[in-house]
From TrEMBL:
MF annotations from Gene Ontology: acetylglutamate kinase activity; ATP binding
Pfam families on file: AA_kinase (PF00696)
Protein family according to the UniProt entry: Belongs to the acetylglutamate kinase family. ArgB subfamily.
Protein name (database record): Acetylglutamate kinase
Domain Aspartate/glutamate/uridylate kinase stretches: 21-255
Task performed by this protein: Catalyzes the ATP-dependent phosphorylation of N-acetyl-L-glutamate.
Gene name in the database record: argB
GO BP annotations, alphabetical order: L-arginine biosynthetic process via ornithine
């Protein structure tokens, strides 16, 4: 344990001089991401930026469960996960989706290495509080940031599937927004970029739905209470709030089909919604 803590302290120092960011890519948008999105990612990597990717894949999991005749349902945004569901979650996230992203990055000439949270004990998890209801769903207790740094040091972008593991070897299904937030917090990156299928957090103002350029934690709480933030946006804002309470300075929610969206966020352009301290 002492060795691990020492090596992780080294990681934080190592990160200090380099621009890195965690990007969460949602299943809602993965198939629709244009080649230019991956081209942008490759150019960032070539310019010395270190992207760390955590991906979802909710729609593909549901599709595969349906094909297999396994029923599925969500409880407060979390998939009820039985042993049979867990098999499909791991197959889809750590298998097809993870490799699809790695291939797309490699097609542009970028360097990517796919890994799930189980490999090397990268994402350590424990049962969520309401595991009686949702089954094998996990909360993150630790992330091996030294492993992520090792992969980036070798010149690869880590592409992480949100499956966690505990000390006994039990696997857990982890919401991808939650996993990405935990990775950003443990790495101590300045920024997390959440790529999804909407242009940011929307609110109806004067009868017109508009993207909010900046939101505070208080506004988020109010919008959840009023029902203006619902469904898949809830785990995103919750992960964002938990990140910015630590070292992460801002979380930006953007639409993946906007041209060069990642570079534009990194250059400080006002695009999407910024969640700030
Ligand atoms: N206030 C809001 N602004 C924008 N989208 C919202 C809001 N509240 C809920 N949503 C929903 O959140 C969805 C994004 O979450 P989700 O479908 O889980 O995406 P992903 O697969 O990228 O994680 C949007 O498509 C939209 O339906
Ligand atoms: C516990 C839980 O709900 N896990 C999610 C993991 C995938 C995910 O979060 O994917 P998106 O980012 O595309 O929504 C699930 O089973 O769908």
């Amino acid at each position: 344990m002492e060795t691990l803590e020492r090596s992780e302290a080294g990681t934080a120092e190592h990160n200090a001089g380099l621009q890195s960011f965690v990007m969460k890519c949602g299943g809602s948008t993965l198939a629709a991401l244009p080649d230019s999105f991956f081209e942008d990612l490759k150019q960032l990597q070539a310019s010395g930026v270190q992207p760390v990717i955590v991906h979802g894949g909710g729609p593909a999991i549901s599709e595969n469960l349906e094909k297999l005749g396994i029923e599925t349902e969500f409880v407060n945004g979390l998939r009820r996960t039985t042993e049979a569901v867990l098999d499909v979650v791991e197959m889809v996230l750590a298998g097809s989706i993870n490799k699809q992203i790695v291939r797309r990055i490699q097609q542009t000439g970028g360097q990517a290495l796919g890994i799930s949270g189980v490999d090397g004990g990268l994402i350590e998890a424990q049962p969520v509080e309401n595991s009686d209801t949702v089954g094998w769903v996990g909360d993150v207790t630790h992330v091996r940031s030294d492993m992520i740094q090792g992969i980036t040091d070798m010149g690869y972008m880590p592409v992480i599937a949100p499956v966690g593991v505990d000390q006994s070897g039990q696997r857990y299904n982890i919401n991808a927004d939650t996993a990405a937030g935990a990775v950003a917090s443990h790495l101590g990156t300045d920024r997390m970029i959440v790529v999804t299928d909407v242009p940011g957090i929307m609110k109806e103002l004067d009868g017109v739905k508009q993207v909010l350029p900046v939101v505070t934690v208080q506004q988020i709480d109010d919008m959840i209470q009023s029902g203006e933030i619902y469904g898949g946006m809830i785990p995103k804002v919750k992960a964002a709030v938990s990140c910015i309470q630590g070292d992460v300075q801002e979380v930006v929610i953007v639409n993946g089909s906007e041209p060069r969206v990642l570079s534009r966020v990194l250059q400080g352009e006002a695009i999407g919604t910024r969640i700030v301290k």
